[in-house]
Amino acid sequence: MYRQDNFLGAKEKYESILAKVPHNDAAIVGLKLCNKQLAPKPVRWKPFAAAVLVAALIFALGQFLINWSDTGEAKMIAAKVIEQQDWQQATTAHNVKGYQAFLNMHSESSYAKMAEARIQELQNNAEEKELQSFSEGLLSTPLKMIAVKGGTFYMGCTNEQAPMCPTDLQPQHQVFVDDFHLAQFEITQSQWKAVMGKNPSSFKDCDNCPVENVSWLQVNEFIEKLNQKTQKSYRLPTEAEWEFAARGGIKSLNSLYAGGDRLTQLGNFCDTNCSLPWKDDQQNDQANTTVPVGEYQPNELGFYDMSGNVWEWCSDWYDTQSAKVTYNPTGPESGRTKVLRGGSWNSKAGYCQVTGRFQHEPDKSFGYLGFRLAHSAK
Ligand SMILES: [Ca+2]
Ligand SMILES: [Ca+2]
Questions:
Q1: 169 found inside a domain
Q2: What is residue 309's three-state secondary structure?
Q3: How many Å apart are CA 148 and CA 251, to the nearest integer?
Q4: DSSP string covering 69-110, please?
Q5: Does residue 67 have a pLDDT over 70?
Q6: Cα(106) to centroid of ligand 2, in Å?
């Protein structure tokens, strides 16, 4: 500022001299010098541009960092936290609506498959609640009917049944059965007596042993009388229903016998105690003839003695198996013999496999033939 004032003062002085003496060379040179010094300074563009560029770069970097934090790892972490919170909410609610809402929001989540499985499980449970097991109290011993949720299965000679696969179990074929009820135990002597009055069994004095020595026709008389008493519609199971239940239904573990692979724990067959020529010399099930129902282990659905004790009449006429896929098959329209399933105290182990089949004319009765009851779900 000081220098500017000096140059202004000098400039006025030189101008004053030149006004009087226009050709004064010293004043002319002095005025030029003053004008040069007083002229506005040009803008220094280079440093300014560099500063602007640096500022812009810093701004851009800031923006990049802000954007990176929004779209990168931070965003992923935030999404995971939300997903975890939503999953926790769904599992706390534990209902179809909650898991469905979770799936709608997080279809790609690692919990998605679990959510789908839980929805399926909840829906199945809801259906099972509608299909209740029940007890028939009119008989001396309550008749417990287990609800069997319907489904699809391969009937006949499936891989695990290889130890005994006669031609009438082949080929395995797909079958669908609807919901139904099946008696937890073979019908006992006391239950038979409560309806029919007499006990036809060969091995008497055992109220809780299965009734045997009953023909298919006699069994149907029993059912008719029971239905009159109870105003229900009991019936024999179809062969497909029987096998589906013996295999454990939708809970099947694909065992050789009903409930497992060790027959001595599951049922009474012709073991070392048996007096018949085909007895098994290696295995001991602790029983010679019939035993009270429910003494061995149950299968996946809670049914007892579907392997062994007494053969069980089914509603079907006997036929060889068909390769066709079938829905609620009921067997041929007519025939000579009726189907029996599951083996008995006098059978080889192989007949006690869940596929074990036998047949008799409907009017025949023997000490190894009994039955259990079925009831349609609707
Ligand atoms: Ca036995
Ligand atoms: Ca049986």
A1: yes
A2: coil
A3: 10
A4: HHHSHHHHHHHHHHHHHHHHHHHHH-SHHHHHHHHHH-TTST
A5: no
A6: 50
The mean pLDDT of 27-47, rounded to a whole number, is 73
Ligand 1 center to residue 274 CA distance, Å?
6
Which ligand approaches the C-alpha of residue 347 most closely?
1
Of the listed ligands, the closest to the CA of 345 is: 1
pLDDT 10s digits, 15-35: 887 887 778 777 787 788 878
User: Which residues line ion ligand 1, judged by CB < 5 Å?
Assistant: 268, 271, 285, 287
CA distance 181 to 133: 7
User: In the chain, which residue ranges form alpha helices assigned H by DSSP?
Assistant: 2-20, 25-38, 45-71, 73-93, 96-105, 112-130, 189-196, 216-230, 239-246, 263-266
Ligand nearest to the CA of residue 306, numbered in listed order: 2
Q: Which residues, including other chains, have CB under 8 Å from residue 216's CB and lie 6 or more apart?
A: 313, 338, 360, 362, 363, 364
Query: What residues are paired with 284 via a beta bridge?
Result: none
Q: Give me the phi and psi of 69, to 5 degrees please.
A: -70, -25
Ligand nearest to the CA of 308: 2
**Listed residue (147, 166, 148, 142) closest to 156, CA to CA:** 166
> Ligand 1: distance of its center to the CA of 324 in Å?
36
* CA–centroid distance, residue 351 to ligand 2 (Å): 11
Evaluate if residue 149 carries a pLDDT over 80. yes
What is residue 312's three-state secondary structure? strand
The answer to whether residues 178 and 292 belong to one domain is yes
Domain-terminating residue out of 116, 131, 146: 131
- Give the total number of structural domains in the chain: 3
Asked whether the whole model's pTM tops 0.70, one would answer no
Q: Would you place residue 301 in the very low, low, confident or very high pLDDT band (cuts 50, 70, 90)?
A: very high
Range of the domain at 117: 71-131
Q: Are residues 183 and 315 in the same domain?
A: yes
Angle made by CA atoms 147, 373, 164, in degrees to the nearest 5: 90
Q: Are residues 209 and 286 in the same domain?
A: yes
- Ligand sitting nearest the alpha carbon of 314: 2
Residues 103 and 153 both lie in one domain? no
Question: 9 CA distance to ligand 2 centroid (A)?
Answer: 132
Q: Whose atoms come closest to the Cα of 343: which ligand?
A: 2
Instruction: Identify the CATH number of the domain in which residue 318 sits.
Output: 3.90.1580.10
